[in-house]
Amino acid sequence: MQLGVIADDFTGATDIASFLVRNGMPTVQLNGVPTAIFR
């Protein structure tokens, strides 16, 4: 499964990332707008 999350601040993004990791989902957190497609 792939899941994308858009958060309005770093704290909210970190909260959801930690929840996903604790439940076994590999997670990557990006800060800012990526300049290339991330796969």
From TrEMBL:
<dbReference type="Pfam" id="PF07005">
    <property type="entry name" value="SBD_N"/>
</dbReference>
<keyword id="KW-0614">Plasmid</keyword>
<feature type="domain" description="Four-carbon acid sugar kinase N-terminal">
    <location>
        <begin position="3"/>
        <end position="31"/>
    </location>
</feature>
<protein>
    <recommendedName>
        <fullName>Four-carbon acid sugar kinase N-terminal domain-containing protein</fullName>
    </recommendedName>
</protein>
<dbReference type="InterPro" id="IPR037051">
    <property type="entry name" value="4-carb_acid_sugar_kinase_N_sf"/>
</dbReference>
<dbReference type="InterPro" id="IPR010737">
    <property type="entry name" value="4-carb_acid_sugar_kinase_N"/>
</dbReference>
